[in-house]
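Subject — a protein and its fold
Encoding — discrete vocabulary of local shapes:
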Amino acid sequence: MVKGTFLLLSGLLAFAATSARADAIDYAERAGLSRQLSGIASRAAMPLARMESLSPFLTERLAGIRPSEPIAKGRAEVGKTTTSATLNKIRVDFMTTQLTPQRAEFNAHLDEALPPNAVALFIRGGPISLRQLAEKARADFPGALEMNGSTYTAHWPIIVWSDAALTLDAGDRLNLSTEEGVFMLNNGLLSVSGATIASHGARNSGRADFRPFIVTAMIGAMQATKARFSDLGFPGADATSGIAIIGAALFPAKLHTYFIDSDFSNVGSLNLLNTRDVLVSGNRFAEPIGPAVGLKGVSHARIVSNIVTGARETQGISLESGTSNVEIANNVVLGNRGIGIFLANGVRSIQVSKNLVAGNGRGGISLVGGTCVDITGNVVVENKQAGIKVRNSDAVMVSTNQLIGNAGAGVSVVEQAATARLTIDGNAFITNRSGVYGGAASAVALYRNDFSGQSPILLDGEFAADVPRLLRTAAGQTDTAARTPLIFHATDQSSVRNDCQSGS
């Protein structure tokens, strides 16, 4: 009996995954990994930190996490007009009522932060630079926009209409007055290249929690490259929580929105709502309220090579409400209060790959109510709950991830529909509280996973009774090509994945 058990354990230890780094971790290597994570956290806290600056720490087990290749940004022009923009003033309440589909996304207390009969600078009819805007405002509306060299302070809200474009150039700094309830509303193009937008001044007397924010709505687009955003966000609604892009089905944007190589410091959230074709690449998000990047009802987006640290209330990256066809890759998601990467409420066709997800307060990667989701090649380490959690989701692939030192299970599978299917393939489980946990789970197929560094609990919950079967399967599989899955809760369709190409 003892000899047989020894042989089974030996087979398990030899049963290495083919893609994930698949060996046990000793004390010295675990200490080295902790030092790497500490170095990453320190470097990520530096202003203007980028993925490239983390490269000295992305070695050994973290070597698969690296910046993505440069990405095409899309068109930057606005219409075909060459005429100069005109500048007028408009009642703020009149303008916001024109945004009937989007108005519900605004903080209901916005009016309390504005002075009585508040007016805004209203730009339309063509492109204009921030300097040109300030010069026009000085002539026509004194006191609306103050200019001091390359620093500009807005005392009125700024509205860019659908036929206009406002450009902030390298070295420009636009301060938005907190005290006077200033915000930016863009229905055209807002271009920020090497410039800074930040809140400014004393606390708002009408609403102590007010901070300036930026909203792009309807057919508008925002394009930011090497920009800096700081201290923005009026909490309480998605549109006002920091920087928001709000689309509408009847008003598709004519230009692509993107945020590239930019710095977000103490910005409540970057929210993308009911829009499409968005790129968020190479940015640093530090100390947001959270989520740092939130998508709801978004189609076709890429979130790649970003640093996301220290979300104070919720997730690092969040996808919800039917968001589909999104790539989340090569990001560092570190030390957020909630879940590192959260996918929920009807998400579909999502690729989560080669991210470092570490030290998050409510787990690493969580999927709830999703279909056709691949979670592949991530390093998920030292999160306060499960490394990867799958709940009420179908056609899910969890493959070649390294799951190290998580306070919960490496992979947790709970509350699955009877017909749901999940594949766990080629992952390395190392010193998690348990390897794989099951609770009201459906069919789960395990291939080629390595549990050699996982102790003392290999399988937990409903799956605990299957440990002998896991050991026997591991010991009996020596020919890689001939390996067959170990299936828990097997059904006739257990090994058949949902057709994610056709949507059936």
Notes: The longest helix spans residues 27-44.
